[in-house]
Design goal:
Layout: H1 2-12, H2 16-45
């Protein structure tokens, strides 16, 4: 939401070049976030639960 707000505000101020640059930078960060989340979920799903060492009471 902050990325959209900053980009929108720069666009509102008619700073089109800075708006475009912030859109590219924030876009890369958002894409990176979704890629990392995808790989974390994939790793979690493929984990072998039978080899997990359990603490016995």
């Amino acid at each position: 939401m902050t990325a959209i707000g900053v980009t929108g505000y720069l666009f509102h101020l008619e700073e089109y070049t800075l708006s475009f640059i912030s859109m590219i930078v924030f876009g890369k960060l958002i894409i990176f976030h979704f890629i990392m989340e995808y790989f974390d979920r994939k790793k979690f799903q493929t984990k072998d639960y039978q080899n997990v060492e359990r603490i016995k009471p």
